[in-house]
Amino acid sequence: MGCFGGGYARFFHTGMHSRLGLNSVKKRIRIFDTTLRDGEQSPGVSFNINQKIRIAGMLVDLGVDMIETGFAAVSSEESMAIRKIHEMDGNFISLARCNRYDIDSVIDTGIDNIHLFIATSDIHIKYKLKTSRENIMEKIVDSIDYARSHGLNVLFSPEDATRTDMNFLIDVINTAISSGAYEINIPDTIGIMNPISMYNFIHEIKNRTKSCISVHCHNDFGMATANTLAAIMAGADGAQVTVNGIGERAGNAALEEVVLSVHAFTDCSTGINMRMIPKISKYVSMASKMYIQKNKAIVGENAFSHESGIHVHGLINNPETYEPIDPGILGLNRRIVLGKHSGTTSLKYILESHGIKKSDDEISGILVRIKDMNIYDENEILKMVR
Ligand SMILES: CC(=O)SCCNC(=O)CCNC(=O)[C@H](O)C(C)(C)COP(=O)(O)OP(=O)(O)OC[C@H]1O[C@@H](n2cnc3c(N)ncnc32)[C@H](O)[C@@H]1OP(=O)(O)O
Ligand SMILES: O=C(O)CCC(=O)C(=O)O
After folding, report:
1. Distances (CA, A) of 122 to 125, 159, 204, 371
2. How far apart are the two ends of the chain, measured CA to CA in Å?
3. In the listed set 259, 288, 317, which residue is the last one of a domain according to the structure?
4. Is the CB of 156 under 6 A from ligand 1?
5. Is the Cβ atom of 79 under 6 angstroms away from ligand 1?
6. Residue 294 domain-assigned?
7. How far is the CA of 102 from the centre of ligand 2 (A)?
8. CB of residue 117 inside a 6 A radius of ligand 1
9. Which residue segment(s) compose the domain that 104 sits in?
10. Which value does ipTM take for this structure?
């Protein structure tokens, strides 16, 4: 079942509760967070154990359904972090290649879930793995079988799925499921899909298999969130995301964007506590040293800030005029900023919020002075008018 919604994000203001899935039974999209694995693959990023534990704890509080805590075979420190995180309550998984060494590394951590992957596109099979489709299929069966025989729940990803021959991909999915994988994740490994191709791709997979499907979209063309949403509209059951969209190259689909889009644009829901999003976003930004651009959707400093006089005038009368999302959903407040583009409504609003009342003529005069003198710092303005 796909989940289209006729709505759009403005509904975050009106009828918010039903759009947020609080009142009705909706298809629940499973949110799989890979900040600690694909997010950490961002060039130059390496979380220390304490940061990993802190992020995992926040992800548990956020309500994500599965946390990819790392790639156990990478190093003994990585494996140690996975073990430590496993001491918490939550659903944790580790990535592994289709080989015994990686699977044993996951078994050694004591976690219950393994994310096995192997590339299935001809370009990866020929030039990277230097093998054949038949051998890939054998590795899939053998690895899933081995992991299952050690009691692990298996999520399987055919890497570079979106460049894989569709008939072969369907065989891979059916084989992985019949070998015991509980879900297949479809990665758009190099981010070459667009919302229409992604919709059609997932629609075909859902029609030709009985598998539970999630998607993992990269942002090389800036479409990771849109592609994830298109996949969900086509019937995908889950999405792999990272906080702030960090990850390989241009990153992954951003958790905050996907979650709000699912609630705003579809009839599906998630189990995410949206009020936790700003806190984890700030922490991941600090720990990864990947600063969030001001105009980043949902978590950027400007996402709920307004300077333009015409906008502020509209907003003060009714926030829906210029705000698609109620910042209260994230536990945030809107910010009115004074600047070159301010009008009298903004200035009056700011002054009144500091208990300063001025006549309309005075407000107009002050605004002219502010613009002439290029003074936009709120404290300086307050000093000037008091
Ligand atoms: C699309 C993704 O994001 S996949 C995840 C990518 N993440 C990472 O690579 C980060 C962690 N990686 C690492 O720390 C290291 O690369 C390790 C520990 C995994 C492997 O290191 P090395 O053994 O030195 O191998 P190296 O990185 O040079 O090459 C990768 C090897 O894995 C093989 N391989 C790649 N993918 C798979 C797979 N899914 N299943 C089995 N083998 C695989 C390659 O063919 C190559 O094998 P070879 O050494 O026999 O030629
Ligand atoms: O899809 C996954 O999560 C595993 C491999 C991967 O990260 C990718 O293909 O981009």
Report:
1. 5, 11, 20, 61
2. 61
3. 288
4. no
5. no
6. no
7. 15
8. yes
9. 9-288
10. 0.98
